[in-house]
Design goal:
Chain lengths: 391, 82
């Protein structure tokens, strides 16, 4: 489910100040003159005022417009309020921007009828708790891509449902640029190769599409079928750290065995970081010896990371350097901490970028098929040394 | 007319179901009866949590600020119709 507030900043101001209701208003920057329109009220939109228009231009197309300075604290408070409502009903909720959220409701709603009931309940709660002028458009579909496309159909106060069997015909009734992820420039490039509709995009050979758009071509092809397997990432859950540890089947002095175990743990930690949209600035390695004494050491990264190999390399470096090599090891643990929201740094090097795009594809597979779907070659042998108890 | 100010005011309120509801304000030696509380929000000011009340009478919109620690009220915004 995707929920998008209608003319958000303007609606909040109309809720707060009744003398603005029913009038064309434009929310500007702190200073009203020489600013741009951040949000236009529904009344102003009807008269041709658009987001990002200069205030000068807005006054020209709509002389009666009331310019009103923005009040960011008020908006973020209301955003917090409605996201709290979303979380009360959804399995989890991802705040996508200040006025949009994705809700995972597969379990909460059970079916499309349940989803519609849920939508109406949420709408009612917003009306009661935030005010009746703060309205939203809701889209219900099988994934985020389609749900967002749905919510954009009817404004204000819309509710649009597209069931899986209707996805293709719905897409065919939309324009390419209606889909989140296809911008103006992409549309032009698609037009240039003769693609104007989703039907044409579906029929276009994938090979040619990837030749033109590289890996984005795969995404375009998936989008033409209304497919999207990106998860709804709960934005409230902010863990301070993410870690895994693993007790070895036998106490060991074998470096290879330790490396294997640590790499596997690093990949699992990195996967959870990526899944929750975090990058880590610090990695901590823990080694417990056969006699239950422990060694803990940590190191900070210059660039925050969510890459398993980077975590492993650093953890192994400090772990292997400082551990007591005379003592057999019983347990290995790795923890990523100092977490911030982000996607990791964009490398300047082609090879690293390639690995990164490979990682994205592997993550998509893992999202769909679970953690067993891929493995590093170095983790495939020896075949009969499973790491005993992992947590 | 839209004004931003920071004038200390006196307020008569009622407390109802864990809520504060402004009923009347006294500003510039005049009383204004509050007809509607349209929106209440909070905001952080350093470590403090400040409450804001967007209220109106028949012709004016007022934004009131309450510092819950010192129980000080200020009129911070005034919008008069017309
Ligand atoms: Mg919106």
């Amino acid at each position: 489910m995707h929920i998008d507030m209608n003319s958000y900043f303007a609606s909040v101001e109309q809720q707060a100040n009744p003398f603005l209701r029913g009038k064309p208003i434009g929310i500007t920057g702190k200073h009203k003159e020489h600013s741009i329109i951040a949000t236009a009220s529904i009344e102003a939109r009807r008269k041709g005022v658009k987001t990002a228009m200069s205030t000068y231009e807005a006054k020209r197309v709509c002389p009666s417009i009331i310019l009103y300075p923005c009040d960011p604290k008020k908006y973020s408070y209301i955003t917090h309020q409605f996201n709290k409502i979303f979380r009360a009903y959804a399995d989890c909720a991802e705040q996508f921007s200040i006025d949009e959220s994705f809700l995972e409701i597969t379990k909460a709603a059970t079916d499309y009828f349940g989803a519609v009931c849920l939508a109406q309940t949420i709408r009612q709660r917003i009306k009661e708790e935030c005010g009746e002028y703060i309205t939203c458009s809701i889209g219900i579909a099988q994934n985020k891509l389609m749900a967002k496309l749905c919510s954009e159909q009817v404004k204000p106060n819309g509710l649009t449902v597209v069931q899986p069997k209707n996805v293709l015909s719905f897409l065919d009734s939309c324009q390419l640029k209606d889909v989140c992820g296809i911008g103006h420039r992409t549309e032009e490039r698609l037009n240039a190769i003769g693609i104007y509709t989703f039907e044409q995009l579906r029929k276009f050979p994938l090979e040619n599409l990837t030749r033109e758009f590289k890996s984005y071509g795969y995404w375009l092809n998936e989008a033409s079928y209304g497919r999207d397997n990106s998860p709804v990432v709960d934005t409230i859950e902010d863990p301070k750290s993410i870690g895994h540890s693993c007790t070895l089947t036998e106490n060991t002095e074998d470096e290879k065995e330790m490396k294997r175990c640590l790499l596997e743990l690093s990949d699992r930690v990195a996967w959870r970081l990526r899944k929750k949209g975090f990058v880590a600035r610090c990695v901590r390695v823990c080694i417990r010896y056969f006699d239950f004494t422990e060694f803990v050491q940590q190191r900070k990264f210059i660039e925050p990371t969510n890459n398993g190999l980077t975590l492993f390399q650093t953890a192994w470096q400090i772990g292997n350097k400082w551990r007591d090599k005379a003592k057999p090891v019983r347990l290995l643990g790795i923890t990523a901490s100092n977490l911030t929201k982000g996607k990791g740094y964009q490398s300047l090097f082609k090879k690293e970028r390639k690995i990164r795009s490979l990682q994205n594809s592997l993550d998509n597979l893992q999202n769909r098929y679970g953690s067993k779907v891929w493995s590093r070659a170095s983790l495939l042998y020896p075949p009969n040394t499973p790491s005993a108890t992992c947590s | 007319m839209h004004e931003f100010l920071h004038d200390p005011i006196d307020v008569i309120v009622s407390f109802c179901q864990n809520r504060v509801i402004p009923k009347r304000i006294r500003w510039n030696e005049r009383n204004y009866e509050i007809a509607n509380v349209n929106l209440v929000h909070t905001a952080r000011e350093g470590k403090k949590r400040i409450l804001y009340f967007s209220v109106s009478d028949k012709t004016n919109f007022f934004k009131l600020k309450l510092d819950p620690e010192y129980l000080e009220w200020h009129l911070v915004e005034l919008y008069s119709n017309g």
